[in-house]
Amino acid sequence: MIEEKGYALQIEGLNVWIRGKHIIKGVGLEVPKRRILAVMGPSGSGKSTLLRAINRLIDLIPESRVEGKVLVYGTDVYREDPYRVRRLMGMVFQTPNPFPNMSIYENVAIGPKLNRLVKNKEELDELVKWALEKAMLWDEVKDRLDDPPHRLSGGQQQRLCLARALALKPKLLLLDEPTGNVDPVNAVKIEEALRSLLRDLEITIVLVTHTPHQAVRISDYIAFIYMGELVEFGLTDAIALNPKHELTVKFLRGEV
Amino acid sequence: MDAREIKEKIFLAVVVILSLAAVLPVFHVFLSVIWNGLGVIMKAGPRFLLDVPPAPNAGLGGIAPSLAGTLLLAVLSSLLGIPLSLFAAVFAVEFPDNPLAKGVRVLSKALLEIPSVVVGMLVYAILVVPMGRFSMLAGALALAIMMIPYVTTYVEQALEGVPFTYREAGFALGLSRPKVVFDIMVGIARRGILTGMLIGFAKVLGETAPLLFTLGRDRYNIPLGPLDYGDSISLLIFDYAQTPYANMHQVAWGAALVLTLMFLAVFLISRRFTEEVFL
Lengths: 256, 279
What we know:
The complex is a heterodimer of chains A (about 260) and B (about 280).
Chain A: E1 7-18, E2 21-32, E3 36-40, H1 47-54, E4 64-72, E5 75-76, H2 82-87, E6 89-92, H3 104-114, H4 121-134, H5 138-141, H6 154-166, E7 172-176, H7 184-200, E8 204-209, H8 212-218, E9 221-226, E10 229-235, H9 236-241, H10 246-252
Parallel strand pairs in A: 3-8, 3-9, 6-7, 7-8
Antiparallel strand pairs in A: 1-2, 1-4, 4-5, 9-10
Helix pairs in contact in A: 3-4, 3-6, 4-6, 6-7
Chain B: H1 3-44, H2 47-50, H3 64-94, H4 99-111, H5 116-131, H6 136-160, H7 164-172, H8 177-188, H9 190-206, H10 233-240, H11 246-275
């Protein structure tokens, strides 16, 4: 495996307010390239907001304000054009949300097509196949690419959304509780897919989860967020074996 | 049978009778149009759709110029009204805090109930008088003004019904706002949008008052250009029902059936769009 130098994601003194409410309070962390960061914390602690501050989806929320610095592979997210910034990243949401009016194929093709990343149909076909393979869905859908996505199970739909994000070849992949609404078998498949992505590609992953088990099982780094504050951040093994903060201990035991 | 059961039976009977009372007039309208109109059309034959209207007490003739006028007006007013409505709705949904967009919202709701004869007067003042002539264009403009608030409101609601998560997914793909709106949101809301357009189209098929001072009522020549005089089926019915001649009353009944069938056709198509399972 090639070791990459430098950080994939750097956050410094990040504060987010929505409608005057302080949601993210002075968060700072750094993730090296080709690693998985798990952001864990109880519901309502600001994990999803943190994720949306990284790719600036937060801009869509009226009366939101962001202070601080976010660097993605060296790009200063809040000093760049938000549309260009978002193209560096892919995102998978909590509830599977494939576009209902498009076929399985079109769902994956839409990103590269509208962003004009491919020259012709052959290239696009190739890219769609590649993305579906990386999302571990190709074998299940290769004979029915023209089907609408609602014919797929919830877990398959979520992997379709993963493929849609991967088709843009993002450097940073953001996942907002991607297994929160899928069955355990599919949850395992998604986790496997993420692991193999990290093995094969130049990609870094930020995964939001409210279950400590998933965080410990899958990640290299853990950030524990509570009430908008970063309580503890470090290597997963260190946090799992030797949490420093009392709140982290409680969360890992399932008490908060 | 105890008292409770009797009460329930009475309640049911009252509901059934009142519902029938509410629906019967509608059936009566349909039946009398079909009853009176069908006889006329059978007697006149295909000529009814291809010929010009008769002179007083001189047979049935046909309604070809008025039929062509109604169809052309609906198409012309849709061409004027629908693109505008689409952009107005997108503007209102995409920039909810913009004062102008708020104005569009309020105005489109207010215009829903505007008296149609006032729209006819307005177009008479701003287009017919300066141009010095009635025209298909003036009629189509009046109809477009009638149609815009309907289509805008429908499209607005269709776009607002698209769950936020699809919008987020679109922006997360790095798409610009126009692409998110026109390539993603419009696609997801397309059935609601099409339904709105068809309802606008159906609405203008039957409008009469906006055409009174705008169209010129030439019902002997098929309009060939936007500056020609024209006629509509609705105006023909309005005029012929008031004449003292029996044959013209019959033409009016036949025309009423043709208009009703056109309306029903559009209505059924729009039903198909809304009924298809949307997921």
